[in-house]
């Protein structure tokens, strides 16, 4: 669970005032990390070391996040909606990838939710492929740069997604949610070259570019994702993007059929906002954390969830791009597209 989660009158007021009338009746969150503390490979005494890097390796802050945690929180902050979920593990070296995958597979299957498998760098995916394909809840792959030896900064797309994984995904029309690696993100020439090659070589992969290509600031998105706009099998997810300019840019660039909502839970349920200062993004946090920026004085700020800040930015962008006719577009973004990408399996899982 996220430390100190609570839902109070002020949060409810935000929901009622800003979201209740405009959010679709149905929401499918297609970007959720779940794991249990048994998946951690480090002892509690080492948490202090890893928490300095990023919220995702701050295990004092979030030691585990179970499927039940997720569904309880979503039901709390999004009342009166039909909520659906799809899951994957937490892809960091401090988490045992196999245990994390095993938890996701067994738990999502038992609860009848779609899930994505995290492939390893050198794993022959065809070896586990058969049993995954037999599972009616398996919909795709979620590779990640931090699972690559030598650290996330050095990873290229082929390190995250080897030939066996690409061929497997292509052969079976799978969804692949791709976290763009390398510091330069979509501006990196190698990333662009690899992406184009993969899209052309494996045309049946249903690619979802996570976090709009890791564009958390307008400077990250302007002119950088345009080369992907005409590929039919390339969509973008909005996970953790809280900058309305980024989302409006995306909405103007591609049809709403190519935009998929995801929250990036559990961090989405913490209080704060991803803020942009001088073309860099920072986690503004309610309480001081080594990976965030926070006021030194207690009680100085009045924050709601990152999740709500995402909805706020998305709805703001929607109004400016789609105007009064936003309803159909928002339904596409919030559930129809993810369902369609999952194909027949999605129809059955979420019938
Ligand atoms: Zn994520």
Automatic annotation (TrEMBL):
Amidohydrolase-related domain boundaries: 104-341
InterPro entries in alphabetical order: Amidohydro-rel, Metal_Hydrolase
GO molecular function: hydrolase activity
Entries under Gene3D superfamilies matching the protein: Metal-dependent hydrolases
One protein family per Pfam: Amidohydro_2
Position of the signal peptide: none
Source organism, top-level taxon: Bacteria
Protein's UniProt name: Amidohydrolase family protein
Species this chain originates from: Candidatus Pullichristensenella excrementigallinarum
